[in-house]
Amino acid sequence: MRRLLALLAALVSGLLTATLVAAPPTGAAVPDLRVTTLVGGLDQPWDVKPLPDGSLLVTERASKRLLHVAAGGGRVTSVAYDRAAVWSAGETGLMSLEVDPDFASNRRFYTCQGGYGASRRDVRVVARRLSADGTAVTAERVVLAGLPATTGRHGGCRLLIARSGHLVIGTGDAAVGRNPRDLRSGGGKVLRVDRVTGRPVRGNPFLRSGNGWTKRVLSYGHRNVQGLAQSRDGTLWSVEHGSSRDDEVNRIVAGGDYGWHPVPGYDESVPMTDKGLPGVQQAARWRSGNRTIATSGAAWVTGSRWGDLDGTLAVAALKGERVAFMKPTGTTKRIGTIRRPAELLGIGRLRSITQLPGGDLLVTTADGGGRDRVLRVSPR
Ligand SMILES: [Ca+2]
Ligand SMILES: [Ca+2]
Q1: Centroid of ligand 2 to alpha carbon of 260 (angstroms)
Q2: 3 state SS of 191
């Protein structure tokens, strides 16, 4: 297959060397991308989200630091909050962030994090209020606690406030084989709840169940949901780490079984989507095949400035050290395959992707050692 290499100019200070690998079969335009560092000197930042005034919030997983970055990538403040209440180990710590749609009036944002339950460690969602000057948390409240945790492995956890206003939570299986298929566990699921109360919402597929977790389940049979993104047509997508093979991009349907059931014990040799399980399993819309790239966060890219990448799902990869732009063929309601019109390489291990209101992407790196950054990717 013919491939076009487009080297990005990185001679100007502040620009990073990056390579856009594009597959140009159609004559449509894939724009050059400019990559700049907004924040440096970070250690394993997990998520980044913009606030309405153009400033940013950033989480760091293991340090549990919550950072406020002034608009334009200016002054960075470590926000004062109850850091000791966050449990971090392995892949779990201070993870995903979401900002309330009414932040301008209520100053509320949400984090998914490790926590200390009454009898055991867990993964939980906490709502917080940010002070007017962005330096401190002035109130916090647990929205949902008791998601399973073990060593910190496969702790998820991704938050998304859907356009319906509901809070969607992608969780990991906590490396416990029976969790993903057990509707009474919050692990290995996509959950949908009221963002204020944490209660199940109308339209959830198992509302008639007597069990509280089951009522919150939107879909099950997931291994470790690392990305959630809602497309223009309202469909919801998850991105997951594969085991020894088959990272997956899935379109989430209510009540869907995504086929991960690694039993007995924690048997990771089973398929990422095991069609031999009872009932119907949802096939991945994209999978990596034999070689995993550790797909993580994702965002739908919108805006004409993106040319042929408008309407793609930008997927961050850790091991694969790239942003893979994935374009569903046909409509997102009914998809045969996903092709990859371009990949952005050379900017490190990548965790999360967020699209800014103006269309640029923010990406967090995950190289560790205090060398991590929040990058801005702009078409030009
Ligand atoms: Ca699957
Ligand atoms: Ca089956």
Answers
A1: 11
A2: strand
